[in-house]
Every structure is written in C-alpha cells, then in structure tokens.
C-alpha cells in the first residue's frame, strides 16, 4: 500500500494536486489536519480512500482529533499533534504512541517535515505543502506499508527529490 500523507494545507493544494497527478501507484490519502476540508476535495478529485483528523485551525467540526488506523497489519496513530506539544518536544507524542501500541505516529502542526525512528516507533511529520516554516521546503510524505513495516519518504514538492527516508 502507498499512502500520500499531508498536513497543514490551509486551503492551498496546487503542489499536492500536481504531485498526486504524477503518481502512478497510490492507495490512500491521509490528511493530518489544518484544513481538513482540503482532504475531501482531494479524495473527490482522485477517487481514493481517505483518512483524516482535524487540526487546531479546523474550527468547531465533528471530525476526530485523533484516530488509530490499521493497514497491512501496521497500527498508526493519526493526530495533528498540537495536543502533544510537538512544537517543543517529541517525548509526549512518543509516549502516547507506546501507550496505544502503535508502530507509527503521523502528525503535523509544526509545518516542518521530520521522520525518525525511536526504537519501536516511527514518528512522521510530512511538513506543509503550502506554508513551510523554519526554512523547510514545501513537502508531503509518501509512505509504503506492507506486512514487514512502514517505509516513509519525505518529498520536496518544489523539486523532484526525496529529502529523507527512514
């Protein structure tokens, strides 16, 4: 399975649309909040299954703040991350992932891409395809999942390049 993981689109989808049109193999769209409505637009356009959570800028809606999904036997926590202090540290969100027994935590909020493995848990922030911060590029993640594991790639949407794999 191949997932397009995006966050913090804030209504600006130009580069995401361009990248999704280029991809030949894609099975899911995951949106991690801050304009969750963008997720509905993308899934409608590309006719792909969608999983999403709301972020701190998704004002009073019924959408969930977090959820656990399971793909190919791999459990993943989806959250925007603002409730776990991700702008300051990752220990809190890592502990939540361990408490829930997931293999990965996908989150956004910082607008800064990152991917790292902490013993048994993968942390992935796809960054922002529209409003990057701290000198980062406009990014999203492509994640391949199979029974053996979760394999993320951060993708620079301004160039054709992979920024980091884990």
Describe the structure.
The chain is α/β, with parallel strands linked by helices. The protein has a single domain (2-165), classed as 4-Layer Sandwich (Purple Acid Phosphatase, chain A, domain 2). Helix content is 17%, strand content 35%. The protein has helices at residues 14-22, 37-46, 91-100, and strands at residues 2-6, 28-31, 50-52, 66-71, 74-79, 104-106, 114-118, 121-125, 139-146, 149-156, 161-165. It has a six-stranded mixed sheet, covered by helices on one side. Strands 4-5-6-8-7 form a five-stranded mixed sheet, covered by helices on one side. A hairpin with a 4-residue loop joins strand 10 (149-156) and strand 11 (161-165). The longest helix is centred in the first third of the chain and has 10 residues, at 37-46. The mean pLDDT is 92.
Describe the structure concisely.
The chain is of the alpha/beta class and 166 residues long. Helices cover 17% and strands 35% of the residues. The protein has one domain: 4-Layer Sandwich (Purple Acid Phosphatase, chain A, domain 2), CATH 3.60.21.
Helix vs. strand class: alpha/beta
- Under the CATH scheme, the architecture is 4-Layer Sandwich
Instruction: Give the overall average pLDDT.
Output: 92
Low-confidence stretches: none
CATH topology: Purple Acid Phosphatase, chain A, domain 2
- CATH superfamily, by name, is Metallo-dependent phosphatases
Number of helices in the DSSP assignment: 3
Instruction: Using the CA coordinates, give the radius of gyration.
Output: 14 Å
Percent of residues in helices comes to 10-25%
Number of strands: 11
Shape: globular
Task: Report the end-to-end length measured between terminal Cα atoms.
Answer: 17 Å
Number of structurally distinct domains: 1
CATH class: Alpha Beta
N-to-C SSE string, H for helix and E for strand: EHEHEEEHEEEEEE
Strand count, sense and closure of the main sheet? 6 strands, mixed
- Output the strand order for the largest sheet: 3-2-1-9-10-11
Q: Which strand-content bin applies to the residues?
A: 25-35%
């Amino acid at each position: 399975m191949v997932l397009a993981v995006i966050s913090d689109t804030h209504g600006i989808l130009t580069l995401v649309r361009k990248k999704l049109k280029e991809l030949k193999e894609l099975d899911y769209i995951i949106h991690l909040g801050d304009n969750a409505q963008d997720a509905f637009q993308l899934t409608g356009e590309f006719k792909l299954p969608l999983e999403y959570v709301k972020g701190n800028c998704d004002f009073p809606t019924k959408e969930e703040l977090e959820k656990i999904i399971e793909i190919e036997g791999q459990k993943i926590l989806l959250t925007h991350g603002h409730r776990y202090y991700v702008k300051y540290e990752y220990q809190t969100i890592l502990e939540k992932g361990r408490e829930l027994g997931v293999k990965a935590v996908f989150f956004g909020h910082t607008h800064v891409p990152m991917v790292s493995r902490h013993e048994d848990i993968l942390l992935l922030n796809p960054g922002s395809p529209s409003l990057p911060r701290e000198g980062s590029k406009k990014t999203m993640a492509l994640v391949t999942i199979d029974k053996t594991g979760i394999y993320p790639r951060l993708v620079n949407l301004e160039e054709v390049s992979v920024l980091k794999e884990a």
